[in-house]
Amino acid sequence: MKSFHQDWLANVRNDLLAGLVVALALIPEAIAFSIIAGVDPKVGLYASFCIAVVIAFTGGRPGMISAATGAMALVMVTLVKEHGLEYLLAATLLTGVLQIVAGWIRLGRLMRFVSRSVVTGFVNALAILIFMAQLPELTNVTWHVYAMTAAGLGIIYLFPYVTKAIPSPLVTIVVLTAVAIVLDLDIRTVGDMGELPDSLPVFLLPDVPLNLETLAIIFPYALTLMVVGLLESLMTATIVDDLTDTTSDKNRECVGQGVANIASGFIGGMAGCAMIGQSVINVKSGGRGRLSTLSAGLFLLALLMLVGDWVAQIPMSALVAVMIMVSIGTFDWNSIRKLRENPPSSSIVMLATVAVTVATHDLAQGVLVGVLASGFFFAHKVGRILHIRSAAEDEGRQRRYTVSGQVFFASADAFVAGFDFKEVIDKVVIDVSRAHFWDITAVSALDKAVVKFRREGTEVEVVGLNEASATMVDRFAVHDKDGADDLLTGH
Amino acid sequence: MNKQDRKVLACVDQSRFADTVADYAAWAARRMDAPLELLHVIDRHLERGSGEDHSGAIGFNAQEHLLHELSDKDAAVARAEREQGRRFLNRLRERALAAGAPAADMRQRHGALDDTLAEHEEGVRLFVFGRRGASAETTQPGAPNVLGRNVERVVRAVHKPILTVTEGFKEPERVLLAFDGTAVTRKGVDMIANSPLFKGLPIHIVMAGKESADTPRQLAWAKDTLTAAGFEVVADVLPGDPETVIAREVKARNIDMLLMGAYAHSPLRALIFGSKTTDLLRAATIPTLLLR
Prior knowledge:
A: two-stranded antiparallel ribbon, 65% helix, B: Rossmann fold
C-alpha cells in the first residue's frame, strides 16, 4: 500500500510533466535508433511505447526510463541485414526470456565486478557510437544540412536561457521542420527512412520457422542483447539511485526488462533497455515515480496518433541535432580530464572498454574486456603485497623465512624468488602465519620451495599455516606426503 | 527488563498537536515511570521531484551537474529544518519535564514517519502521536474529523500500543474500553490489568453490536480480570452500530480516554469494506489508545 502510493501517486504533477518532456525526446531517439538498427521507424516507436508502459509496472527502479536504445540497436544491425525483421522480433522475445531467467538467478550480483572505470568506458563508448551513427546523415550532403544541424544544436542549448518551461529539443524539431517546409528544402526527412506507425500496435507472432536452425541464428544475438540490456539498465538504475538518493530492486529490474522486451516483441517492436540520457532528463524534469515512465510511453503513442503525419516531415538534420545532444549529455567529459589524475591502470581499463566497444559496436565485448582488464590489474597490484624477510638463527645452522602478504598466481614467482636455495645450511623454517594462500598456484609454489631446499639437503619446516591456507594445503599440497619429490620432478 | 528499553516515544511535528502530544507523553511517562523520548521525523519526501526545468536538454556532464544541483538543494533544506527542529524539540522537552516526565530525551531523524517508527520500535513501550500532522493543517483546513494521512500507515507499521491524541490535554479520569472479545482486545484487558498507566482510574467496558452466545462469558472474563487487578469496573453490552454506540457512550459518560483494537484486518479488506478502526477514530474526538 505504502509503496504503491510512493511509486505512483506521490508526485503526480511532476511525473506527468516529466513524462511529457521525456516522450517528446523519445520520438526522435526511437526513430534514430530504428535507423541505426536498419528497421522502419515504427519498429522503434512501438518498442519505445511498449517498453516504457510495461516497465512502469514491472521495473525495479521507479522513475527510470526504458525504451528502444542505441546500445541494443547496434547489436541487431547484422541480424536485421542478414535475416530480416521477423528474426529480430524472435530474438527480442528470446532476449526477454533470457533476462527473466537472469533476474531469477540473480545475475545482477555480477554487476559488482563491473568497476567504475568500466562504467565510465561504457557510457563514453555509447556516446561515441550514438554520435558516429549520425555521421551518415552528415556526409555527402549539401550545406543546408550542416546549417540546419548547427541551428538545431544552437536552439537546443540556447533556448533554455529563454524559458525552461518548453523542451528545447521540441522547439528545435518544430522550427527546423517549419523552415524545411517553408523554404521547400530538398533534404532528407524522417518519411524517407521507412514506414511510420499508422495505427495502434497489434499483437502478432514473429513469422519465423520454429526450429533449431532459427534458434541457432537468434540465440547469439539474444544473448548479447540480454547482456547489453541488463548492463545498461543496471548502470542506469544506479545512476538514478544516486540522483534521487533512493534505492532500487535490481533483480526485479532484470525480470521487468525481460517482460517488457517480450511484450515489445509481440507487437512488432525491437528489444530495448534503460536509457541513461532519458532517465537523467526525467529526473531533471522532476520525474520520480512509476507514473513518469508510464506517462512517457502513453504520451509517446498519443503524440504519434495526433501528429503522425507531421512526423514524416521532420528533417533528419533536426533528429541529428537531438542525437548529438544525447551523445554530448551521455559522455562523461570529466573522464578526459581525469585520464592523467587517475591511476594509469584505471585509465587503461576505461580506454580499453571504449576502444573494444567502438571497434566491435558491441558493448558486451567492451565491458568483458574492461572487466578482465580490471581483474588483471587488481591481481597485479595485490600480487605486490608480499614480503619475505629472513634471519639466521641457532648460530648459523638455521634460517627463518617470514612470509607476509598474499600468495596466489600473480605473486607465486615472487614468492619462490624470495628464498635463497643455494645457501648451505642445516635447516630452514618457513613461517607463513602472516601470509594467505589463495589458490593451487600458491600451494604448488610452496611445494616447489620446499622441494628445492630438500634437494640441497636442507631440512624444511613450514610453520603457522593459518586456517585458510591450511585447508588449501591439505587439499592440494604434496610436499608432506610420500613421494613428493617424484611427483614434482615428474620423473 | 532494562528500563532504558521501555520508553515512551512521542512523535512530534511542527503542528499545533505537538504540545498536546508532549503533554500526554509526559503524563504516560510519569504514570509508568518510564523515560520519554521526543522524536521529530524530517521527511525529505524523496519520492517527490522538484522540477522546474522542463527544457529536456542535457549538456556537458549533465549527470554530474544534476547530482550536485539536487544534493545541494536537499542539503540546504536539511540544514534549515535541523536547526528549526532542534529549537522546537528543546521547547517541547522543557514542557514535558515540567509536566512531570521522569526523563526526556530528544532525537531528529531523516526518513519517512512509518519506516522510522518501525525501525525504532524495539524498546518502545508506548507510542504517542497526533491524529493529524503539519501537512494536514495545510491540505485539509477546518475539517476536524479528518484523520491525517499518516495515521493508518503508522499504526499498521508498528506493533506496540499507540496513543493517538486530539488537540488539548486533559488528565484522563475515566477510561472506556471498546471490547469485542477478539484476541487484540483481550490482550488489551491484560495490558490494562498489568500496567500502571491506568491504575486507580475507573474502567468502562463496552461491548457494542449484536449479542452472541459467547458475549456474556467474554464480558465477565474481562470484568473479572480487571476487578482482580484492583480496578473499579463498569461493564455493559449495548446493541447497535459500534461506531455510534461508542461515540454516544463516550459523551454520555464523560469519558476522556478510549481504548480499542486497531487494524486487525488487511489493508485490502479495509479498502473494500472500510475500516472500523478508521470510522471509530473519526467518530471519537478524545485521545484513543490503539492496541495492536
